[in-house]
Specification:
globular, 76% helix, mainly alpha, 466 residues, Growth Hormone, Chain: A, two-stranded antiparallel sheet, 1% strand, 2 strands
C-alpha cells in the first residue's frame, strides 16, 4: 500500500509540475513588461496614457481569455485549453519583441493576455481536480509559487539584459534593443510548456462529465489506486447534472432564479485581489521606485528583492494552507496589506515635489521600501495563492468551468482598470491618495472574508455546495 501511495504522489507531482509551468509563464509574461516601459515609450513615442494602455493591453486579453477558457474547458477539456495557451504564449513572446509600432505590440500583448487569462484559471482548476483533498491546498498553491518565480525570473532577466546592454533602450545582440530581448526570453519556457503538456492526462472530472468513463477510470486508477476508482466515479457522477452538460446558465439557482451566492463570492475574491493594487508593484515597480528617487538600476534590483521575498511568503502559505485553512490566511493577509499600504500612503504624503518629481526624505524612503515589501509578503502569504486555490476548488463540479469563467473575467477586468488608471492617478492625484484607496480596499476585504467566505480546506470537490 505504501508503494502504491508513493507512486500516485509521484504521478500527481509530475502533473502539477507541468501544469504550473502555466503559472510560471503567467508570472513571466506579467512581469516582463516592468523593465520595458522606458523602451516602449521611446520606441513608440507614447504619452503617459498611451504607455498605460501599452502596459495594460495584455489585461484585456486576460479578461477575455479567462472567460473563454472557463467555458471552453467544459467543452474540450482542461489540458486542451492549456495547449492552446502554450501556443499563444509563444506567438505573443515573439510578436512583442518584433513589434515595429504600438498597434502590432498591443495585438501581440493581447494574444499573450488570452494565454495568461486561460492559464490563470485553468491550471489551478486542473490541479484541484487531480489532487487529493488533504494535499489540494498545498499542491494548488504551487501555482502561485510558479507565478512569483516567473515574475522574479522576468525581473532578473530584465535586469541582466539591461545591465549587459547599458540600459533597456540600448542595443544588444543582433542590433536589437535590450527590451525586445526581454520579451524573446519567454520563448524558452513557453516552448517547454507546450511539449510537456502532451505527457499529462486530461482531468478525470471533465472526462466523466463528457461520459468518457473508461478514460476517467484509467486516470483515476493512476491517481488514487484501483480500489478507490468505483466509489470516486460514483461521487463524481452524482455531483453532475444527469440531464445536461455543464453550461453557463447553471450559475443561476433553479430554486430562487437568482445568481448563486457562491458565484458572487468568487467574483468578490477575484476583484478584491486586484483592488489592493498588488500588480502596481509588479507592472510599475521600476517606475514607482524611480518616482521616489531611486535610479533605474536600483529600482530593478528592488524588484528582484520583492520577488525573492514573495517566494518565501508563498512557501509559508503552502506550509499552513491545509493546516489552518484558507479563510484565516485571507484575514491575516488583509490586515497585513492594510497596514503596509497605509504606511506607504503616509510616507508618500510626507514627500515634496521637486521639478515635478516626488522626493522623499531618507527616513520616509526607507519606510516606504520596508512597508512595500511587507505588503508584498502579506499578499503572497494570503490572497496571492489562496484566491486562486479557492477559485479552483470552491465551485461544485457542475459549475466549476462557468464559475471560473465569470470570476476570472472579473479578476482580470479589475486588474485592467487598476493598471490602466495608475499612470493617470500618479500624474494627477499623486501616490498618497492612490495608495490610500488601495489601503481602504484591503480594510473592506477583511469584512468581506469574515462574512462571505466559507472554508474549503479538506473537503472533497464533490462535497462543494453552491
Amino acid at each position: 500500500m505504501g508503494g502504491e501511495r508513493t507512486e500516485n504522489i509521484r504521478f500527481i507531482g509530475i502533473i502539477v509540475s507541468v501544469a504550473t509551468l502555466g503559472g510560471f509563464l503567467f508570472g513571466f509574461d506579467s512581469g516582463v513588461i516592468n523593465g520595458t516601459v522606458d523602451g516602449l515609450q521611446e520606441a513608440f513615442d507614447s504619452t503617459s496614457v498611451g504607455t498605460g494602455f501599452n502596459v495594460a493591453s495584455m489585461l484585456l486579453g486576460c479578461a477575455v481569455g479567462a472567460f473563454i477558457a472557463g467555458r471552453l474547458s467544459d467543452m474540450i477539456g482542461r489540458r486542451s485549453v492549456l495547449l492552446i495557451a502554450a501556443v499563444l504564449f509563444i506567438i505573443s513572446a515573439w510578436g512583442s519583441g518584433v513589434a515595429g509600432d504600438a498597434t502590432v505590440f498591443v495585438i501581440a500583448r493581447i494574444l499573450g493576455g488570452l494565454a495568461v487569462g486561460a492559464a490563470s484559471v485553468i491550471a489551478p482548476a486542473y490541479i484541484s481536480e487531480v489532487a487529493p483533498a488533504d494535499r489540494r491546498g498545498r499542491l494548488s498553491s504551487i501555482q502561485q509559487v510558479m507565478i512569483i518565480v516567473g515574475l522574479t525570473a522576468a525581473f532578473l532577466s530584465n535586469y541582466l539584459l539591461a545591465e549587459m546592454a547599458g540600459g533597456s533602450r540600448a542595443q544588444i545582440w543582433g542590433g536589437f534593443e535590450a527590451w525586445r530581448w526581454m520579451f524573446w526570453a519567454e520563448l524558452v519556457p513557453a516552448t517547454l510548456f507546450l511539449v510537456l503538456l502532451f505527457f499529462i492526462p486530461e482531468s478525470p472530472r471533465y472526462l466523466v462529465a463528457k461520459r468518457r468513463e473508461k478514460e476517467a477510470q484509467s486516470v483515476l486508477a493512476k491517481l488514487l489506486g484501483e480500489s478507490q476508482v468505483p466509489a470516486k466515479l460514483q461521487e463524481i457522477r452524482e455531483s453532475l447534472a444527469g440531464d445536461h452538460q455543464p453550461r453557463l446558465s447553471d450559475l443561476v439557482s433553479t430554486q430562487t432564479g437568482r445568481i448563486r451566492t457562491i458565484v458572487w463570492v468568487g467574483i468578490g475574491l477575484a476583484t478584491f485581489q486586484q483592488l489592493v493594487g498588488i500588480n502596481i508593484v509588479f507592472y510599475y515597480g521600476a517606475v514607482l521606485w524611480q518616482a521616489v528617487g531611486f535610479t533605474e538600476n536600483d529600482a530593478l534590483k528592488i524588484n528582484v528583492l520583492s520577488g525573492a521575498l514573495s517566494i518565501g511568503a508563498v512557501f509559508a502559505a503552502i506550509a499552513l494552507i491545509d493546516r489552518i485553512g484558507r479563510k484565516p490566511l485571507l484575514l491575516i493577509g488583509s490586515v497585513g496589506m492594510a497596514i503596509g499600504l497605509t504606511v506607504m500612503a503616509f510616507a508618500f504624503a510626507s514627500g515634496s515635489l521637486v521639478d515635478g518629481e516626488l522626493v522623499l526624505s531618507d527616513g520616509a524612503g526607507i519606510a516606504a521600501l520596508i512597508a512595500a515589501n511587507a505588503y508584498v509578503v502579506a499578499f503572497n502569504f494570503s490572497w496571492g495563492p489562496v484566491m486562486w486555490v479557492m477559485l479552483g476548488e470552491m465551485f461544485p463540479n457542475q459549475i466549476r468551468g462557468s464559475g471560473l469563467a465569470v470570476s476570472g473575467f472579473a479578476q482580470w477586468t479589475a486588474n485592467f482598470l487598476i493598471i490602466m488608471s495608475f499612470p493617470w492617478l500618479l500624474t494627477n492625484i499623486g501616490l498618497p491618495v492612490t495608495y490610500g484607496f488601495y489601503a481602504a480596499a484591503a480594510v473592506i476585504s477583511v469584512f468581506f472574508v469574515a462574512k462571505m467566505v466559507r472554508e474549503t480546506a479538506g473537503r472533497e470537490l464533490e462535497a462543494m455546495e453552491g
